[in-house]
Amino acid sequence: MNKAFDSLRVSSSRLRADFDALAQFGATGDGGVHRPTFSEAHLAARAWLREQIEKAGLELRVDSAGNHSAFLNCAIKSPISNPQSLTLLLGSHLDSVPYGGRFDGALGVLAALEVVRTVKEAGVPLTMNLEAIDFTDEEGTLVGFLGSAAVAGRLTAEHLRQPRGGRAALDAGMARAGVTEQGILNAARPARSIAGYLELHIEQGKRLETARTNIGIVSAIVGIASYRLTFVGRADHAGTTSMHDRRDAAQGASAFVVAIRELVIRDFPQCVANVGNITVAPGAFNIVPASVVVSLEFRAPTADEFSRLETALLERAKIEAERFGLGLKVDFLGKHDPTPMSFTAENAFIAACDALRLSHMPLVSGAGHDGQMLVGMCAVGMIFVPSVGGASHSPREFTEWQDCVNGANVLLQAALQLASHAT
Ligand code: HGY
Ligand code: MN
Ligand code: MN
Fold first, then answer.
1. pLDDT value for 75
2. Per-residue model confidence (pLDDT) at position 83
3. What pLDDT is recorded for position 81?
4. Measured from the CA of 368, which atom of ligand 1 is nearest?
5. CA of residue 97 to ligand 3 center, whole Å
6. Which of the ligands is closest to the CA of residue 397?
7. Please, are residues 8 and 66 in contact by the beta-carbon 8 Å criterion?
8. What are phi and psi of 231, to 5 degrees?
9. Could you give the count of Cα atoms lying within 13 Å of 132 in the half-sphere of its Cβ?
10. 224-336 — its CATH code?
């Protein structure tokens, strides 16, 4: 622990001013924000971030995947140190889900910026550089973890061919942002250039609130998979076709949606499955539905549950389709495996919480995060701060300001530990 700087703290007022200013971009008037990737609001928020980075006297970097960074070249240069000093990444994402909350991602990016500003002002001698980063499209309104997967070199053209937000939306978004497919694929960083990635995020659940604990130290992040299932029936006249003669795609799709809740609660109690969108075609009152597209996402904390759950859900879709005489088209849209966090990062967070006299507990993250993409490339760690009532991905999302500041100070002290000489 760098004794000389263990009393260093972030500026709560400056962080608050940034947070309130950022929340205006895409504000929905009910405390939430609508800032999907590469929307006008998202692009305006990034323009605002660029201004803050330059105002802070930090080096602005925007890579070819659109990731925005505030870089602080603070590593002590010594004859023996690697001329390409390592960098410790701190960050999250400014994009939001449609009509989501103002804390998800935003708190992590602003806390990271505030940590780098604080270290710069204090002139802390570190063994590595610091970089606060805003990753592109964490939420997957276009692809999902797009910027972090690009940095980690995990993306191929195949990932971008049929993304979960649709290729047309990706093309339109890239055009608005001035990003190209080739640029995204070229954004990979050298494996040995990043020493670690630390992220502060709201919990988006109620375990910390229930346990009355200040900080959650993430031990692992769930695996997430997305499929588009199309139940294929036959259009018929809704008034003259008997109920027995129909091949009603809505029947099969609805039976599937209801059945998977039962299946997950009974057989996969640590997992979740979600149908976030159902599209009926042709979609008229008086036509028996010819097809229904169901967007399926499911999550599991371990590889074994993840694979068994995938098999069980797809099997269930087949059964319900057959029950109603329907065809079934299964489109795989992407998968991120369950990911353990690094002990080095966890220990740094524990020491920082203890030094700050903040209570902490280990948590598995039921939400996906950019850190999943960077595991394998560097040490990855996350902390959570309490979400009031567990609300998130909703304008109801809220975290008490003191909890936000606690999280930012834990991030600061953990970063100092991981990036400084032992003195
Ligand atoms: O969907 C998630 O888990 C995250 O909020 N992107
Ligand atoms: Mn998030
Ligand atoms: Mn989110």
1. 74
2. 53
3. 53
4. 3
5. 6
6. 3
7. no
8. -90, 120
9. 32
10. 3.30.70.360
Question: Domain locations in the chain?
Answer: 12-222+338-419, 224-336
How many helices (H) does the chain have, and how many strands (E)? 13, 15
For 182-209, the pLDDT digits (tens) are 999 999 999 889 999 999 999 999 999 9
pLDDT given for residue 331 in this prediction = 96
Q: What is the pLDDT of residue 76?
A: 73
Chosen CATH of 12-222+338-419 out of 3.40.630.10, 3.40.50.300, 3.40.50.2300, 3.30.310.50: 3.40.630.10
Report, as ranges of residue numbers, the positions in the chain whose pLDDT lies below 50: 1, 422-423
In angstroms, the CA 17 to CA 319 distance is: 54
Rounded Cα gap, residues 333 and 205, in angstroms: 26
Instruction: Quote the CA–CA distance of 246 and 90 in Å, as a whole number.
Output: 56
138 lines ligand 1 (CB under 6 A): yes
The pLDDT value recorded for residue 1 is 46
Which sign does the torsion angle of CA 118, 407, 375, 187 carry? Answer: negative
DSSP letters for 129-151: EEEEEE-TTSS-SSSSSHHHHHH
Pocket test for ligand 1, best of 97, 146, 148, 384 (most atoms within 8 A of CB): 97
Residue 275's alpha-carbon distances to 25, 139, 227, in angstroms, are 28, 16, 10
What's the pLDDT tens digit per position in 163-186? 999 999 999 999 999 999 999 999
Give distance in angstroms: CA of 91 to centre of ligand 2. Answer: 11
> What is the three-class DSSP state of 25?
coil
Ligand nearest to the CA of 145: 1
Mutate to test the pocket of ligand 1, among 109, 204, 364, 394 (most ligand atoms within 8 A of CB): 204
Cα–ligand 3 centroid distance for 173 (angstroms) = 19
Coil, strand or helix: which one is 300? strand
